[in-house]
Amino acid sequence: MKTIDAPIFVVLVRYTQPVEAVMKHLEAHREFIASGYARGIFLVSGRGADGDPGVVVASGVSRQELEQLMKEDPFHQHSMATYEILKFHASRACDELGQLFPSL
């Protein structure tokens, strides 16, 4: 276990339209997600299971910057999803993940 000091965001992505409508924008959404990784902001992401929301874990930006970034998501642009952003201050992580964040 590694002691860290890092603000982390968890974004919950909930569909607001039927899955069939959402899937029409899936490829563009995947490209958006890839760009978040390329920019060094997204740490992990994935779809929800059994009706749970999708999740994006992000770091290295302010809440305001992340809110603006999520507006670039085609799911947002086409009113396919809503976003709930949760912020927490990570203080511990497994050794492998802890290497990504500053130590205390």
From TrEMBL:
Pfam families: YCII. It comes from Rhizobium paranaense. Residues 9-88 form the YCII-related domain. InterPro entries: Dimeric_a/b-barrel (IPR011008), YCII (IPR005545). PANTHER family: GSR2449 PROTEIN (PTHR37828), YCII-RELATED DOMAIN-CONTAINING PROTEIN (PTHR37828:SF1). Transmembrane segments: none annotated. This is Uncharacterized protein YciI. Belongs to the YciI family.
